[in-house]
Amino acid sequence: MGCNWVAIRGAQEATANQHDVLNGAFKGKIAHDTSVVLFGSIAREEVTSGSDADWILLVDGQAVPEHENQRRDVAEILNANNFGRPGRSGVFGSMVGSHSLVHEIGGEDDTNSNTTRRILLLLESLAVGDDTAAHTRVRQQILSRYLEDDNGLLYGKGPFRVPRFLLNDVTRYWRTITVDFVYKQRSDAGGKWALRNAKLRLSRKLVFTSGLLRCFFCHLDPTAEDARRDLANNNDPTKLAAYMESELSATPLQLLARAAGRPSVPQSTAKLLFDSYDGFLGLLDNQQARTELTDLRPHDVGKSEVWSQIRKLGRDFQEGLTSLFFGDDKELRALMIEYGVF
What we know:
Layout: H1 6-25, E1 34-39, H2 41-44, E2 54-59, H3 66-80, E3 94-97, H4 98-103, H5 112-123, E4 126-128, H6 133-148, H7 151-155, H8 164-187, H9 193-201, H10 203-220, H11 225-234, H12 238-247, H13 252-260, H14 267-284, H15 287-295, H16 305-326, H17 330-339
């Protein structure tokens, strides 16, 4: 398109540097039944100067006392390498067993924390170190649950092959974080309100969008044709699971680019999406702007030029998404009408 999104490129380069640091720091220090898993900007390849490190020690095996020692070691290594600490919510910075992630999908035991970790394992997670087998296994197991328990996917006769069980959980996660945003606004007395709002308008919305696209590409992607045929003829999700596993390494921005690059999507839509997201990353990488967003309270937003920029970037990004999903691409529009609301 002849565009040069400087902030996106810079964030990718900063992410690659952090990957190298983390892989070196954890080399030879991870037990085979565990993985150090990071989320957020480093998993999305969107690292800026103020990025923190949201992480868990993922345990996929028998519980042993040594796991707690390893969790403390992970925190110390990250701190020693100047990675910011996770937030205070308790979702990250902890030891997490695979059982609840795989088996507690829905129901009263599926807490907000459990849902968040499970969905983000699929949409934006990165295992570091030289042994990432536990991370791979758990993601495969989670995908298997979503596909094998989806009777509509296995036995349905409609025109679309979309994993609705997974899509519904992705949508539930998105609605949960929008509600929790208001909860945190109240519980923190407005602290970090503007920064959280900015992320909700752009990076959090991008993650949700990537979840929609991961599901929609099961129907749209030509490379998934064999998987769709096996579903239609044999009610067998094995090939679809393999296809989705192969796609897990794609970042949210890469998935968005693939959708925005479809022949029927106008270049103006792609430009609006990536111009606005590049502007957002540029602001986050500006320490003065980030500090202003961190300290800004709701009653002062009318005085803030940085907030005015965020509002415009958020509106532009939303306009681009509306055009992408409800505009000229008939297949995306049909999928969004069929699955996006009801």
